[in-house]
Amino acid sequence: MHMGMVIDLKKCIGCHSCAVACKLNNNLPEHMWWNRVLTKGGETMDTADGTYPDKLNLQHLPVNCQHCADAPCVKACPTGASYKAEDGTVLINYDKCIGCRTCMAACPYDARSFNWKEPTYPLAHAVGEADAPKHQAHIVEKCTFCANRRARGEVPACMELCLGRARYWGDLDDPDSEVRRVMQGRRKMRLLEEKGTNPSVYYLL
């Protein structure tokens, strides 16, 4: 089994619902985002490059942990806190994390966050899933593909709230899975493949 995600860039409308769903469902601290939607185009978010009216270029690129099959973060972690789960996802055991941030330096996707101090939140009460990971000071965190939701048979929150239905989730090893079917006959890419990380997130072009 090798669980992964496919994101159809032709369907992504750059609404950032995936980022907000992730933040709320995982009760992420202030200033922390496990999902980001980058803009390929102008110098600032949601702006195009080129000239009006017919030479404009704008594309949105949702980015989270790529859950690499050959994850450099796992290889770099000195305590085994970063590890590959049986389903192929990359997770962090907070009890083993010593906050050395070696995994952050090894990750080419800038997909990890670090709590420098006791986390603070925009609201006085927790939001999202009751079984969401508890956030701690001096600990590295990242997208888990909503491991708690998946344990209940649900899909990651970013997929469920995607307005354009641009996200697909499933077993990349299963030729009959939805993620394999939607890739058939489509041009696709993975981020920074030249790094040899073998990402588990595919983008349809």
What is the secondary structure topology, with strand pairs?
Blueprint: E1 3-8, H1 17-25, E2 36-40, E3 49-51, E4 55-57, E5 59-63, H2 72-76, E6 82-84, E7 90-92, H3 102-106, E8 112-114, E9 140-142, H4 147-151, H5 157-160, E10 167-171, H6 178-183, E11 188-189, E12 201-204
Parallel strand pairs: 1-12
Antiparallel strand pairs: 1-10, 2-5, 3-4, 6-7, 8-9, 11-12
Describe the structure.
The protein is α+β, with helices and mostly antiparallel strands. It has a single domain (3-204), classed as Alpha-Beta Plaits (2-Layer Sandwich), CATH 3.30.70.20. It is 17% helix and 22% strand. The protein contains six helices and twelve strands. The protein has a four-stranded mixed sheet. Strands 2-5 form a two-stranded antiparallel sheet. The longest helix is centred in the first third of the chain and has 9 residues, at 17-25. It is globular, with a radius of gyration of 17 Å. The model has no long low-confidence stretch (mean pLDDT 92).
